[in-house]
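Study this fold:
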Amino acid sequence: PAPPRPNVPPVPAPPSRQGAGSALPPPPAAGGQVVNPPPRPGQGPYGHIVAPPPLPANAAAAAAGPETYVVSSRGNDANEVVVRTLVGEFVEHGSNHGRKVYKKIADGVGETVDVFLYYWDGRDGPTFQGWWFGNKLGGTQVWSHNQNDGMFPPPSGWKIPWDGGIRPTLVVESKAQQARSAAFEKLNTLGQEVKVVSLAARKTLEEAWAAHQGAYTGMEGLQAAETALNGSASSLNEALRKVIEAQRSAPGGDMQKQFAQLGTSIRTSQQQINAELGKIKSAMAQAEQSVKQKELEAKDSKTFEEVWAAAQEKSNTAEDLVEKAAITAEMIQAAGDNVDEVAAAVTETEAAVKVAQTAIGDARVFLNAKQGMVRRFESDVVRNTAQSDLAKLQAQLHRAQTKLTPLKAVRQDFNQRQAIQELVSEVVAMLTPVEIECDRAEEASSALLAAGEGASKEVVQRAEAAVGKATSQLAKVLKYLAEKRTGAQGAMVVEIDSLEERARACDKRLNELRSAQREITEKVSYEALMKDARDKLQVVKENVSKAADAEGPFLMGVEDLPLDETLTTLKACESAATAANTAASIARMFIATKLVDVKRFSEKYATEATTKLKELQKQLENHAKRLNDLKNNCSTRKKKALTREAEVQVSEVEALTKAFAAASACFEDDDKLTDMTADDIAKATEVATKAEAEASVKLAEARKYLSERQLEMKGRDGNTEIAIELAKYSSRVAAAVGDVAKRKRLVTSAGDRLEAKRAMEGIREKVVAFEGKVDEAVGKAEKASEAEDPGDLHTEADAAVTASQAAVKEMMSSLMSNPLNRQSAARPEIDKFKARVKAAQEKLDGARGKLNERQQKLEVKKIIDDAEAKVSEAEKALEAGTAAEAAFAEGEEKLSDEEAAKKSEELAKAIQDATTVAGTCRTFITMKRLVVKRLAPGPAAEGNEALTKFQERQEKVAKQLQDLKASAFKRRAASSKKEAEAKVKEMQDCVAKAKEATTELTSSEVPADAMKAACSKAAEAQAEAKKILAETAAMLEQKQKEARSHQSVDSAPMVADLGKLMAEVQTARGELNTVAAALREQEHKFIAQRLLKDASDIVEKLEGKLASTIEAAAPILSEDKKEHFVAALWLGQIFDALRSRAAAAAGEGSSAPLADRLWLEIAEKGE
């Protein structure tokens, strides 16, 4: 697009577009452009100024999506045709002469006209340089022109028509900047609101602190503080809600941070309020608890005092009764052996003990109940004291119980003495017959000894019976004494020991008799033992002979008998051997047992019996050895027979298995199977099936036979060697079973294998075609990565690689889900195809890597170009700031105030622009570093190296800009200080005038009529002084905050100077407060004097009326009683008249003095 050419006169827009007769705006200010005023600053939280920072000039360029500008009118010319044509949103639409072109978005209302906003450089002269609004690119119909040559459309200074005057109402601004301005306006409004709420909360918090520290006493003060804090908390919550809602719709970046800071300040106040609320609630709870605790202590103390007296009385009574019982028990010892006196004393003692025990029990029950009651006391102090006192009484009862417990046994001691006497009588009665039986046993033993070795069995038995009877009766006596010993004590134990000694003497006599009888008894036992041993050995001998006879058929010279006859004969041999083995075991156990038993004989018979039993034991071992030889021979013959039969069975099985293998050989090779015809396959299947059936039948028979034989070998008489041989045959049969099963599967799966082979061929064809596509895509990728300018080659290669990767996934998914994976025969082939697909995937990954690397190199090149442009822009902005600062090089005093203000404004704008551009450049480099980090190592290294150089240039610009800011700040600081000092001087003059007006009022006597005018004059002077003082304080506070906000420069000196001026303001405020207090005091004094004078006049009038009334009533008071009664009646009428007239006068609103009218009425009635 282009503006009108120099050699062609511009064509004005048609009347319908341009408008006729519209007044032109006033001429622009000095400088040739109308500068759009900055957004109105607003108060932030706690008084600091926040104004929306300008949107960076290239923020739209860095943002994602096309840039949009908004054209609007801020005057009353919005209905003009030209203005109406231009107003609207313009979106980015290409570029021209190094600047972006913007096209208006049609709003769908009225006639649609294309409107472009574009830049034209100075190639056609300075007249046509700048930004234009036109109907098309390269057209001659234009509506407005701005000579600004900035990179972006200027906000103001537009001329309508293009060669007319500047229209200050037409504004062009970025849509993003417009949104930021609205957000900052909302931030300022909320800042003011938060400031008010926060100050109120701080005041409430200070009052609450005072309440918590004791300034408020009692519960009412704490409740008042809590109510005030809850109100402040509600206000803060509402303010925070508004801030959060505004933050949600605010733009990102600094706006979000400022809203977050505002919310943080509110949350800080909330935390302080909540903390103080917690403290107040805690103090209220403690106060309530303290009052409650005192009430509980008084209540529990009263209750315990009522209980304590009764508890002491019961405990002391129980202790006295225990002492009485102890005194009564001493009478038992005094009675001596007199049984009647002892019995009486025991009875009296028991009665006393019972009474004392009852008293202790009652006291304990009472104390336990009261302990439970005490534990329910709500006062900890009273509860602990009461528990301690009751515990002492319980200890007192415990000591009394300890003293009483032994006295409970007096009856038991008395009964024990009687029991001892009864025991002695009973045991003597039992022991006397035992001693008689011992005498009889001695007589029988004497007869046995007299008979010697020729004693008959009857004599022996008689002697043993006599000793046994005496022993039995003696055991009963000893058992009875042992039972009585259990639980016996004291004297009873002594008596039992004496009686046991007599019983032990009888036992000793019986032991001597038993020793004498033992020798004869051992001889008889020895002979019976030897007879039994010889009989058992004879049985063994007979059974071994029977086992030898059963082996006869094998000893006749015919070893290889038929299998059935062999098994029958072997079974008979095994039965005879088992019987002989059982008899041998019985004899062996009998002899071993008796060898132990004879050790209890006397030495003579023990030695003889041991020798003979060992001889019999040797004979038994010889028979056992012969029996073992017979069993071994039987086992060998059985092993041979079973092995022979098993070999026959297994050989038949293996022969049939080989026949089946030959019949099914054609099914082993899939290639051969594919070449066979359907008839051949059917015939081969029939033959193989028949061979498999025969082999299976024989296999079942062989497995059954071997299983039965193995079960027999697992029995009690099983042979380990035979079991091992059978296991070997079973292994051969199992191998045959596995071979048959394997070949049977080959036969039955022939059809499935044919189908699988055909499916595999189809898969192989797909894989080959797929690999061709992959190779083609890889070739395109290599060609694109090697091209200098890939262009369409890269797009085509990327699409091919992407399509191939999708095909890889599809092919791998197809292979993974193919039913052939479940067939063991096809699985290896499928795995090979998977490996080929994975190899293709690796090729594609390599191709993708090359494409990405090439694309990343191009991306790095673009980043470097953009960074160069931004750094250059920052350097140009710095040069512009340096040039603006050069105007002050010869001294600011040489410039007029108007020129200095203008130059300062230009310098501030240049610094702001440079700061914005430098910040944008720094942000760009930082963000692009993050982008470069995610690239491949090669492009990343190249990008980092270039960005490092750009960052060094940017840091250099930032340092020079910092120096420029410091210089400008010092200059502004001096100007600001001068302005502040002038304002402070003005404020001090106003305060002096107020002091002077008040001093004139208070230092001399002012007439009453002139006092009101003098007070009004002084009040007006003070009000004017307060207004100027507030303005001065606000200005100084604002300047302090502005100075502190410049963190990049040293603002401490300026802040200190402003602090001194603020101190002067505070001094003046104090003086003004003193003057105001003096004025108030003078006003109050004047009012008090007026009130006192009015009151004195009224009192004097009343006193005069009272004197007249007394004088008039004197005659009435001096008469007799009757006259006094009449006077009382008249006085009542007087009061009634006074009340009625007062009410009537109040209702009528009469202006006459009430007292005068009342007295007049009284006088009239009196007449």
The chain has 25 helices and nine strands. The longest strand covers residues 88-96. Confidence is low (pLDDT under 50) at residues 1-51, 56-64.
